[in-house]
């Protein structure tokens, strides 16, 4: 053994106190506390070893609860690993006992199941931390150090992760434990370490009478052995042991009155601080009869002030349990309130020594610092703080174990572990393996079994009591034999007659061809030509005589009198499920088989048509809002349909996908394209994008065969269902993977390769519930045997989907109401878009035409021409612009513009008449930077009396002759002129 689990040590936090704990300093409130350790018995590796009866009943091992240092127990001598390197977990591992111990050379199998977090190494019981410890323990058993197993054993370790979203999950852990029990039937179970998962698994283990060994599960409730946790054994430190340690402190210092507990309790995680301090509270209140008050520390503003008021009113002995930030904040306020003068003592429960800023509890510690070299001024305040941590064994055997643990974690998992107190938990798992081997050794030595520890019966039935009438094996009489033979003959004759009659009836029904549909009864094109709405739209895939596709997949058509969907198929009487049997399948969540056309080369099958389209179409339509009630209804419909299909004569689907789930006019989801696997043929060629896109729902065991077989498997349907559930939950398409842009072909190849970690879609607990994530992970498990059937899925969904208990009518009405609300919202959005476009068009029209003219055009009126008696027309021109443009490059002349076309023709508002022509001629005869006006305009300006004009003279105007014109020089600023 590496060391006695459950030992605690008390460390002063101030640097003036030497690292050798227990020696007082001047002014320090604590004298030296004597050790109460007990010496181990001679020749036994454990102090006060448990009896065989207590171990066989799987009661907790008695531990030294009041020690301040742990006994140095004898550990196995470290040796070099055997040739060939350490054995891999998950493969048979021979043990140390010689083959001669078993005369017949038989090897018994021992299965060890492990349920722990797989990746998050912030847990002390994470798999990368514990797996090396289990390997070292099994290698020690293999070498026979200590010699615990009396005969050869083949040990197999089966591991499953209890992790979901990077944290311990109380939903995943029991499911994994059930899977391990169902598919591997283990002899012993290790883990979980988190409290809530361990509670669920512990109840299962008690029901199965299966020993559960863990170095975690610190809560007080696991001490209850009579009912829920009869088979649970904790080899590591626990909250009751911490409580006993604190109780001993109070008894030694004669603190018999009051105590205050201040702790952090986050109910969103596994509540580690709450369950750690729980043992202290229970032991002090119930065992020591103290007045114990407790308070939950809040990190919000004002939470620390409230905590200080609580400490003042509760007691002078204070226990703190929380992150280091809480300790620094409390001590900062305690120093401000003068609580650090020696009248108060603060115990900080830090089991892994995180506040000591060192690799282990014996290293240098500066818990008052916020960072390296960042002294917060609390050095004096921390003189009254003592830190309670796990005690780290100092023997060389444990140090060698810790070195090997870190080395193997780096080699196998790529995880860099530190020399820390967290490694003590892995050592407790190491001890757990040896303890189990010890109990198994003594049980087998007394003639017991590894199951239940029961010895063989001393008086088996029908062995010694041969006179018992129930053991009479007298041969049957001749008459009885004749009667039995005659009866069997009649039974065989009856069965044969029934089979022959059934075959004849099937042949007769096949001959009558009630299911047959002639090709000329199927119509393709507009439905208005065929009974208006009486017909139904069809989809067609045609195949020739040799099964070659005619590439008509997706053609629309109509079948008079029946709502049907047509799909091509090579019809054959050798099909395992002929059409007469298909017609007998009637269920609300399966599309109805109508018939088949076998007129070569037009061979197809006709099934019920659902006008709402496929589930894939609905999920990809962003205008349809699906709340979770609606989504769970769709999932329930799939589960009901597949459960019925798996229990029918068909037995499986084989090609379940969201495009094969259709929705009828009443929003009821139905499964289509089931059965008649040999009749169906895909319309997509080999190695095409569409072909791989249809394989995104296919299970890996079917992908590895290269092509889908005619007959699928039920577990493959469960895998496809898991992909559909992820598609419904996230609405990002099938097999959505966050942060990765892979083609369907790349995804299918990764799934087919089946390399660990197995390639699966993304899960987002922020979008859907944790229970739904668990369901998806179980459905797309790599091993088909680990996937639940649809009966189990139906029960699982019913547990967390409370809305699923409503009646079909209520559910339907709710669906119709939601659909109507969606339509109203859609109409409102389209109306707003129309009004916005109308406003833009009117603004453009007002920019092109005068407002009065635009209003007449909007009203559909004719715009009449107008005559104006007196107007002034202004023309402006840039002199020399043409010459400047000719001498410049296009980039020097041009600039960005915005262009658009309004209507089919460009609208314009034209001015015409002699006045316009005159103004144009004057503009062409003008000069740069001068305003050229006519004599008529000069007369108008003279009426104002404030403009300065200069006579230019008579100018020859084209088409006008000579005209007298003037230059407009400016405006006179005469204050007398109004």
UniProtKB/TrEMBL annotation:
Q: Which PROSITE patterns match?
A: ANF_RECEPTORS, GUANYLATE_CYCLASE_1, GUANYLATE_CYCLASE_2, PROTEIN_KINASE_DOM
Offer one example of a GO biological process linked to this entry. receptor guanylyl cyclase signaling pathway
Asked if the record carries the keyword Glycoprotein, the reply is yes
Q: Which reaction does it catalyse?
A: GTP = 3',5'-cyclic GMP + diphosphate
What membrane topology term does the record carry? Single-pass type I membrane protein
Predominantly, its location class is: membrane
Instruction: Supply the alphabetized keyword list.
Output: Cell membrane, cGMP biosynthesis, Coiled coil, Glycoprotein, GTP-binding, Lyase, Membrane, Nucleotide-binding, Receptor, Signal, Transmembrane, Transmembrane helix
Q: Which SMART domains match?
A: CYCc (SM00044)
Q: Where is the Guanylate cyclase domain?
A: 872-893, 896-923
GO cellular component entries: plasma membrane
Q: Which residues form a coiled coil?
A: 809-836
Location within or outside the cell: Cell membrane
The residue ranges crossing the membrane are: 479-501
For region Disordered, the annotated ranges are 31-50, 72-100
Q: What class of enzyme is it?
A: lyase
Question: Could you tell me the EC number(s) of this protein?
Answer: 4.6.1.2
Which InterPro entries is this protein grouped with?
A: A/G_cyclase, A/G_cyclase_CS, ANF_lig-bd_rcpt, ANPR/GUC, Cyclic_nucleotide_synthase, Kinase-like_dom_sf, Nucleotide_cyclase, Peripla_BP_I
Q: Which PANTHER family match?
A: ATRIAL NATRIURETIC PEPTIDE RECEPTOR 2, GUANYLYL CYCLASE
Return the protein name.
Guanylate cyclase
